Amino acid sequence: MASQDGDRTVALSRQLALAHDELRRLIKDLKAGARHRRTGGDTLATHCLAFCSALETHHRGEDDGLFAQLVRERPELAGTVAKLVEDHSLISSILTRLAELARQAAAADGPGPDEAIGRELDGLAAIMESHFRYEERTISEALDRTVPAGDWPAPVFRFAGS
After folding, report:
1. Where is each Hemerythrin-like domain found (predicted)?
2. Element (H, E) at 91
3. pLDDT in tens, 27-82
4. Considering 28, 33, 86, 89, which has the largest number of Cβ atoms within 10 A of its Cβ?
5. CATH topology for 2-157?
6. Which three-class secondary structure state does DSSP give residue 12?
7. What is the Cα 116 distance to its own chain's centre?
8. Alpha-carbon span 74 to 81, nearest angstrom
9. Max alpha carbon distance in the chain (Å)?
10. C-alpha span between 3 and 97 (Å, rounded)
11. What pLDDT is recorded for position 39?
């Protein structure tokens, strides 16, 4: 059974990396859309709000499920998890600003705050990349090393837009 648990946790580690890859793809597409906004109305705003929701759902799943279980199984990860949760809070504040800009863009008749959205997306992408790399290095390593399979929350791995 230990081999099956090990196989499952390695698979979870890979799923986490794949979820991050999908979020990276989504923000790249969103940034491209912000730079080349040719469509009218609230298309950019809709995509921004959907992305914000997807990333928030992913982080909530990590905070409430994955990280909590990891700390129960591996208490020495408490400091690492606390840093990741702190990152999530910082990212959440950026997402709040981005969502507000997206709502303003949807309400604007003209170009709206597209440049501000682009700047927020650039900053968010940089922070996300740093966060994801750290998380993949530390949490995936922990998952790969004999953390028993558990009831890992689906929102960590699958979210709106995927």
Report:
1. 14-140
2. helix 78-107
3. 999 888 877 654 444 577 788 888 999 999 999 989 988 888 888 888 999 999 99
4. 33
5. Four Helix Bundle (Hemerythrin (Met), subunit A) (1.20.120)
6. helix
7. 21
8. 11
9. 61
10. 45
11. 45
